Amino acid sequence: MKNIHIVLSKDFVKLSSLQPKRSSHLHKLSIEMTPRASDFQVLVKSLKTKNPLTTLNMKGNALGNERALTVSEVLKTNTTLTTLDLQRNSIGNRGALALSEALKTNTTLTTLNLNLVQRQGKGERGKTPKHLIG
């Protein structure tokens, strides 16, 4: 299997064009830009449908807690993703807790990469919640 890595500006790419019109052979997707709100919603919607995507790398996209909450809702019903990389996304305790709750019902995801070191606001010190430490 060959991997092709292309970095394009967010003004050049529209995530909606990645939505398969028919059966897709896309199994791994890396996004190295902060998606616009509309593009993020397209991505989330595609993850809710029967989608062959097994690996999603969104590391370093400044998603934050709110988008982590959205991703956690998708994980509750998604049955194809096995690997999700959300490192360096300014996800704090609130987002991490929502993601951990989603893992109680998601039986397909085997790898979730998080890096919880950024300070997120009053009361959140960027420490990993105790129940997430192996």
Q: How would you summarize what this structure contains?
A:
The protein is an alpha/beta fold.
Structure report:
With 134 residues, this protein is an alpha/beta fold. Helices cover 25% and strands 9% of the residues. The chain is built from 3 helices and 4 strands; from the N terminus they run βαβαβαβ. α1 links the parallel β1 and β2. It is globular.
List keywords for this structure.
single chain, 134 residues, alpha/beta
Fold topology:
Elements: E1 28-30, H1 37-48, E2 55-57, H2 64-75, E3 83-85, H3 93-102, E4 111-113
Parallel strand pairs: 1-2, 2-3, 3-4
**Helix share bin:** 25-40%
Helix vs. strand class:
alpha/beta
Mean pLDDT: 76
Helical region count? 3
Main β-sheet, in a few words? 4 strands, parallel
Amino-to-carboxy terminus distance: 33 Å
What does the overall shape look like?
Answer: globular
User: What is the element string, with H for helices and E for strands?
Assistant: EHEHEHE
β-strand percent reads 5-15%
Taking pLDDT < 50 over at least 5 consecutive residues as the criterion, the unreliable ranges are: 19-23
Strand order of the largest sheet: 1-2-3-4
* Count of individual beta strands: 4
